[in-house]
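User: Hi! Is it possible to get a structure for several chains at once, not just one? Here's what I have:
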Amino acid sequence: MNDFKHLLEPRSIAVVGVSDEAGRPGSQAVRALISNGYKGQIYPVNPKYTEFDGLKCYGAVSDIDAQIDLVVIGVPAKGVIPVLKACAEKSVPYVVVLSGGFRESGPEGVEREREMLAIARAAGIRIIGPNCLGFANIHSQVFAAFGSITREPKLKKGGVSLVTQSGGFGYSLALACADADIGFRHVIATGNETDVDTVQLIEALLGDNETEIILAYIEGTKDGRALLDVGKRALAVGKPILLWKGGVTEEGARAAASHTASMTGSYDFYRALFKQTGIVEIREIHETVDFLKAFAAKKYPANGAMAVMGVSGGSAIVFADAGEPEGLHLANLAEQTERLLTEVVPNIGAVHNPIDLTAGYFSASNRDKLRTAIEVTLADPGVDALCLNLATTGSAGSTAAAEVIANVAKDSAKPVCVFSSAPRDQIADASRLLAAAAVPLFPSPSRAAKALAVLTRYGAARREAKRSEYGESSAAPSSKDDLRGWAGKLSEAQSKDILSRAGIPVTRDVLLSDADDSLPEKLSWPVVVKIVSPDIAHKTEIGGVKVGVRDPKELESAIAEVRANAQFHAPEAQIEGVMVSQMVKDGFELIAGVVNDEVFGPVVVVGAGGIYAELMRDSSCRLAPFDENVGRQMLDELRCRPILDGARGKPALDVDAASKALAALSRFAWEHRDAVSEIDINPLFVLPQGVLAADALIVPMPFPGH
Amino acid sequence: MNDFKHLLEPRSIAVVGVSDEAGRPGSQAVRALISNGYKGQIYPVNPKYTEFDGLKCYGAVSDIDAQIDLVVIGVPAKGVIPVLKACAEKSVPYVVVLSGGFRESGPEGVEREREMLAIARAAGIRIIGPNCLGFANIHSQVFAAFGSITREPKLKKGGVSLVTQSGGFGYSLALACADADIGFRHVIATGNETDVDTVQLIEALLGDNETEIILAYIEGTKDGRALLDVGKRALAVGKPILLWKGGVTEEGARAAASHTASMTGSYDFYRALFKQTGIVEIREIHETVDFLKAFAAKKYPANGAMAVMGVSGGSAIVFADAGEPEGLHLANLAEQTERLLTEVVPNIGAVHNPIDLTAGYFSASNRDKLRTAIEVTLADPGVDALCLNLATTGSAGSTAAAEVIANVAKDSAKPVCVFSSAPRDQIADASRLLAAAAVPLFPSPSRAAKALAVLTRYGAARREAKRSEYGESSAAPSSKDDLRGWAGKLSEAQSKDILSRAGIPVTRDVLLSDADDSLPEKLSWPVVVKIVSPDIAHKTEIGGVKVGVRDPKELESAIAEVRANAQFHAPEAQIEGVMVSQMVKDGFELIAGVVNDEVFGPVVVVGAGGIYAELMRDSSCRLAPFDENVGRQMLDELRCRPILDGARGKPALDVDAASKALAALSRFAWEHRDAVSEIDINPLFVLPQGVLAADALIVPMPFPGH
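Assistant: Yes, the chains can be modeled jointly so their relative placement is included. Here is the combined structure:
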């Protein structure tokens, strides 16, 4: 891990490519450093000048007679390599390449970027960019940047650090936050990410004491596992990550390809990763602002029971409408709470939730009553958070109310938030009071509900992370098979044998080889008969499966039939024999499997079986490995989930066993990630007692043990 | 229909309940009328005063020696009835009751509200309220209101009329619009809606020349059919309705019950109605602002092909991400278009969509180039709308660009919109230029995409409305059955017989009565055997159905078995006989049905059959009657829809026939809406050719012909 200390906090900066021509990136950087009062050394570089904006200007990096922490390169693409070589000679540790004309511009640029990276690697230089807006350290007035980052409005200091692949769109997030008076620590636009990438920077920011929350925009990552790890560490240290994933649709991916040429992974895998790490996905600019405000207090609801207090019934309805699909509900207040509220809420109001204080309640004279109302509500053990509607009561009333709210909120372990649709100027004073107390103020009840839902989920992810560390899993121990010898193809029998040892129950099968086609022992009628061949992946399609075989006579003819069909449809296939399996009834069919993704590594997928699985896309996934609690969450996300509880009078099915099987599968896939390319268990029957894999296929890596 | 002319545009207003006490609603109304310069007569009423704020004050309504168009009542609840009686004597046509203390306050209030309505009905008085904020006519400075409606900020004149059941939350919509410089015509808060309701007011606004677009917040309506009709008329006259439905979740509904005690219908039915009328559902305050801006130009994309032009690849990705789930896609530009763009777009930019003009392009010197770029893009027949990103290029550049955009947009039949995340003050001039040309300016690419998607869907609804008028339906003519004689229970045989005559194909059945239990003719094996009794609704559960009956011998025993089972499980049931039906294979099972809802009338529902239907809630509904195009839309909304196109090598199924069957069912349900309470067709098989209802049940109204 690199903390990038002298990258983000450089003691000296050389800027190559300053010029009197308007708009040159290097000039913008130098001017921003000067005007913002950067305290370190600034070395402008341009052989044509001896002075630039009052600073001594150098002919080349090599002319600078001092240690340089950071070189900012803003010359045209063709000139970048020579400058980088000079940096290498001078042992410069960090370089920001603002210039475009690399990978994004065609074959010549691809070659140039490759050469640049090779030089940097050889010299131990770490590069931000190329083709980027650069970065700024708002606390230390470092501006290794150009364009919007160096222009008005100036960001104020704060605890948010932004890392973005897209400078243009990413910085618009910062501007929206600035408009809402949110302050920043670092703002970093990474462009092509030829060397330093978003994930590495987030990792470094976890170690930065001034960074309290991380905001990121990414179009893709080449290493999903690194993102998973950094996400888990962020959760552990309590620094929330708010992440916008660009390029999530076909259209988006297409536009991504023409933009920074990033590798875009599957959105489903990203979303699984977000769930496993508590990363908060953002999809709108105003959400970014709302969620940053919400996280400022670092208080998370223990559950989804919300109390709403205000003067508009309509607003409470809108709050409830927006919260319910996000997992929130209106808390049931205790009798004691309602009794205490009765003493401070007017008769024409309501002391049940939503609590109606009645119009005009917010006033200086009602301060004590309001304080009591808030305190008794927060004290109710059935209330996880409180949301107040600061209605349009004019400036004096809202200020008086905000004073009380801010005071009570400070001492409360439960989150308190406010929404108000009053005009900005009417609640300017109230806004300031609330912001100072880290009480978020939202512009609508629905946005308040969504922000509280995000806090609730984040709190749950924190608790879950503390509980479930890999290693404490209750999943069965995985197989000790040495899989290096795999030939590249595994039959159903081999696959089930391996999975069985990995802790996944499989149907009782008897493999009949050519030599002894006799009746199976230990199986009860009816049975299923299947051809066994590593060369036949889809047995059903070629007539290689017979179900419902009821007696020895039917068995004999079934065996003959599947053999004949295999011979007819796949004459070249190597036939290992015929498998006779116990026939499963009274279960529900799931499909479970593993995709060993290039970016995300092994991912476990589960879905409803049969025709609906494919067509209705009822599936859920998580990155392996995980424990049975995560397995249960996956099942809970399926639309077919209610069926497992026993539909139409049928018995409830064994969700525990299914959860454990998924965890076992995830552990197996993780431990054999170098050897396993894909796994399909289809179907995985969930029974009233236990689960059974009735068919399975493990596809090894093309080059095992690579 | 009532145009409420002298309600919303009164020539004289009496206000009962003025007082020097601070905050009295009547006083607020009079002062708002005076300070805003209302041109008509104002008559304050309070026996304690002879003058109020410089106006002559009257002792009672009866003391006013002139015709009064509108009386505003702001006295406490107990005093309302006497005032209303005085209004009746004076033949006052309209009254606004601001006072609370009616239905929402308990049994006494319910009785008071009933008495008030009776007096009004008898006297022909129309009432707004009670328990409401009242209304304002912003064009004529009418303020029959109190509270936030009469306070700062003053709304500016414009073409938006707001009708809201919730004064508090509803007016927050107006405030958000005011902040975005959107102007208003009428703002009406209806409260308890004891007489005049939201739907009637929307209907009146359709006839108001100054109202161009209608914004509404409702928690419930007692007459879904009236809303359907007014929605269809609004679509026909081209006045968009933006509607926020509060109380859509269980939680929301619960809060609703304690608020205005409105009757809340099913949200699914509302959403079906919105689709059938082009009503735009809003669920966020900022959406309200975005969509109002978007509708201002009255131009709708012909389809979902969007061109995006700007300088940030990231923003284009975000636009595409947000648009795709809403039905938008990035247009493929014609070769000709790209060639023409090459002449005006810098080499390092992109002439394919999204079009990258490159940073710094927006400047006074590039005016002509920008104009050409926009014009050739809009001229491309494959482009339905254009969205420009006004990046953060400073004030001069954005103003120059806005001038060009505004000019070209005026002459374009296709919608042009702009998004920008630049700080407000940097684009203040650009904003004004764009607003003057009705070019909407959105704060993010995703919000631009969502607004364009709404315009696209509204345009499609307009075209659909012109095409499909009820009466031109291709659905089969409905049954002429006289259903008045129904006894309250219908057997499967009777139900299928009736539906068959209504144009819905049913399985070939033979009903065997006690007398002649002989083999059926005209049926091919296998067959299904079912008990027939109006007293047994769920035949399968009692063993009253045998499927796959293969020969005469099996038939004989099947008949005996279902009779025995019926006798055992339902000894009291009247048995009409046994039905032998053709067994359907190779089809997909749907469930189709009708719910005759108290609020919405007959609604047709269709869903996937079998266990998945119930558990996965895969269904779609529309208000009857409708034609087969709407039937097809319903099927298209089902998650199981791909199965109908032929899954896993199976033949495609007859979607046309299924659509026609739904249309026929809808027509039948509509024509017999006074007699039919419920219809279930389960299953409705969709076959490669045609559809077949294999079982059906019609539940008549408890009191037929009521």
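DSSP finds 22 helices and 30 strands in chain A. Chain A has five domains: 1-140, 152-296, 298-467, 508-582, 588-700.

User: Great, thank you!
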